[in-house]
Amino acid sequence: MSVKPIFFALDGPNLNEFEFMLKKLEGHIFGVKVGLEMFISEGPKVVEKLKKDGWTVFLDLKLHDIPNTVRKATKSANNLGADFLTIHIASGKDALQEAYSSKNDSLKILGVSQALTSSTMDAKMSKGVSEDFLLAKQCSVDGVICPPSEIERTKNLYDLIVTPGIRLNNDTKDDQKNTTTPENAILAGAKYIVMGRSIINNLDFVMNELDI
Ligand code: C5P
User: Fold this and answer.
1) Ligand 1 centre from 9 Cα, in Å?
2) Is the pTM of this model over 0.70?
3) Going by CA atoms, what residue is nearest to atom 10 of ligand 1?
4) 182-201 pLDDT, tens per residue?
5) Which numbered atom of ligand 1 lies nearest the CA of 174?
6) pLDDT tens across 150-161, in order?
7) Which one of 101, 181, 194, 196 is CB 3.0 to 4.6 Å from 164, fit for a cystine?
8) Is 51 among the catalytic positions?
9) Helices marked H in the chain — which ranges?
């Protein structure tokens, strides 16, 4: 059985509501993403529990703060056992460098640009994303959260490209505007994709038929 390069976004207030799906997905996907909603309502123990169950955990806290706070928060995430952590590149050079120098190799830092996948991309925003990713690279950030439309032009800079905004062909887009399919994201150069609602709505298809 091949492991699909997918992070399942656990976007809800309780881990319990995902237990059934997690049991089914075990061994089929690369990891899970804990975002603000889950982290705030369940607390840090949710990361420890998922790690104990054998999951690779992507802690999507999108840190955006002064260098001292970013350094300490990164250390805490590292101590908690998170495998990936997001930081806003807009936090600036000093904060990004602090994040890099305060962690060990078990934690990968992912830079988040100003463009969320809930916005449509225009030329000005695309230029801003490229500038953000360049700064992240200069500060030794391990990888980036990259909108679908920007994967092609990012892959020369980064191997570790993680792409949200994923929808299957027949899915509704919900609030996402910058979207692509799992196959196209991987073909374009994403190393991992993030899927939330598309997995919940198509669990059996993603497990058994999706070929990535
Ligand atoms: O349900 P859906 O697949 O749209 O969820 C996407 C997940 O990826 C959410 O957890 C969202 O916070 C996250 N994300 C995103 N766009 C970004 C960064 C993160 O959709 N640019």
Assistant:
1) 7
2) yes
3) 9
4) 999 999 999 999 999 999 99
5) 4
6) 999 999 999 999
7) 194
8) no
9) 19-25, 36-42, 45-52, 67-80, 93-102, 123-138, 151-154, 182-188, 197-201, 203-208
